[in-house]
Amino acid sequence: MNNRITNLFGIQYPIIQAGMIWCSGWRLASAVSNSGGLGLIGAGSMYPDVLREHIQKCKKATDKPYGINLPLLYPDIDKHIDIIIEEGVKIVFTSAGNPMTWTSKLKEHGITVVHVIANVKFALKCEEAGVDAIVAEGFEAGGHNGKEETTTMCLIPMIKDAVKIPLIAAGGIATGKAMLACMALGAEGVQVGSRFAASVESSAHEHFKQRIVETKEGGTQLSLKKLVPVRLIKNEFYQKITEAEERGALRHELAEILGRARAKKGMFEGDMVEGELEIGQIAGLINEVLPASKIMENMLQEFRVAQAELAQLSI
Amino acid sequence: MNNRITNLFGIQYPIIQAGMIWCSGWRLASAVSNSGGLGLIGAGSMYPDVLREHIQKCKKATDKPYGINLPLLYPDIDKHIDIIIEEGVKIVFTSAGNPMTWTSKLKEHGITVVHVIANVKFALKCEEAGVDAIVAEGFEAGGHNGKEETTTMCLIPMIKDAVKIPLIAAGGIATGKAMLACMALGAEGVQVGSRFAASVESSAHEHFKQRIVETKEGGTQLSLKKLVPVRLIKNEFYQKITEAEERGALRHELAEILGRARAKKGMFEGDMVEGELEIGQIAGLINEVLPASKIMENMLQEFRVAQAELAQLSI
Known about the structure:
CATH superfamily of the largest domain in chain A: Aldolase class I
CATH architecture of the largest domain in chain A: Alpha-Beta Barrel
Mean pLDDT of chain A: 97
Number of helices of chain A: 14
Largest interface: A-B, 60 and 60 residues
Number of strands of chain A: 11
Radius of gyration of chain A: 18 Å
Order of helices and strands of chain A: HEHEHEHEHEHEEHEHEHHEEHHHH
Largest sheet of chain A: 8 strands, parallel
CATH class of the largest domain in chain A: Alpha Beta
CATH topology of the largest domain in chain A: TIM Barrel
Oligomer: homodimer
Distance between the termini of chain A: 27 Å
Shape of chain A: globular
């Protein structure tokens, strides 16, 4: 495909694998890039040295474009930025922060910058900051999300109306049909998280991958809204948080229940009871763990079939 | 268009105008039906005699198919059912209740029955109850909604996988692009609420129509989750409810703040401060009040343009 997203990154298909904590290291990123999409290393769960190691291994594993997802609230953000520049990374997706803070420094070093947002206000700020493209992430997405709770179906056309830079849709996309739907709404590419979290190359714990496969419709909920909203699988830890929220618990109590390293405990160490299990609603449509190359192949095939079917509708 | 939805109702285009409280009387329903869609009279805000009057006026205003939306929790439901049968109504969309309760009685009288659901569990129950089609309504939809909070982008393919009967998508659909997106996901028709609430023929108060037009992305929220979840515009009444919810107010206190006839006060009587203003997230994309025929025309035109553009993508 030849559009502003494939041209911006120099990739074959406008499918971006979301840079996720505890799931997307060099193995997953390079597998997606080698399949013609854009693989992202998720820096949010990596110490600086670990990030460097993953970048170096990714460069050895693929000669195709790849990128880094960099949450801007990361405490050691300066070190991450330095490593990204030193290692010659060409593409960075920033998230969870203000696009004005780091965009110009990254671009001075020739890096393509994409910022992840969940509302129109921040989309406008992205354009002002000079980012090259936007990921607009709907309410259904896994992990941390916006307070507006705007869904992909509503968010994509609203962002499309508000800005001129290329738009990548995220949230609820695990199939070629959803990719086609997002393109009908005005996106030029899609970012896919949950589907790749349950891939062979994902660095998530096998228990977590299996739990994603078992998750049905209604099995996740946006939670912890008084802290930073995050979509979780409804396990025992989620229930504990929900009970506290329903009786009006304040931020400090919720933060105490959350504690530290809950996501690592669940997603990386495999504790399905006490761990924080971040995944999107679309987990309900994911029924098996597949290699990244097979996920790419399926999405492209589904896209082509659905496109041909839609073209035949006469109205 | 010729598919299972247009054939089921005998209509030209698979666009259904949602039967909404305080917005969709005979004027709106007949205008939509006369434009080739399916207009629905919203019985939820009508006393039995008022419903009869609207049905009779609708029959005079159009010779095309039209229907009734009937919330099953309505206290005088028996009287509504009797009137529907007596007046020879051919199409009923039931909602807010169990599809097993009334479907067979309606079908014995030759009535086509569609049920509105928001999760896979009830979709399966619909099929068991023998309804003719399903409306699957996503989290972004206006008014009352499900506890699962599954968005249209996720819900449509999940329901499509779960049942064989025809599927109508609802929630977030105000344009032909969104209609096309829903068809890519597996729907054979769309139900459109918010866009028609802000139509010339809508019986909503002008203040409410204007407020819909002014609502931006992030301007609504699913509220009152401890009672029955309902999506509201963030006005002063909403703020009052939200403050109570955040400090852990229980059901009875929330019910007391809500009181009676709040929706009528806002949507029909035009009190934008104290009224309950039910609308979908997609209000953020609605920028003017239009005649129903123009809304239909725009949606069809947008659908055709987007369809042609999608068909040209080569992947």
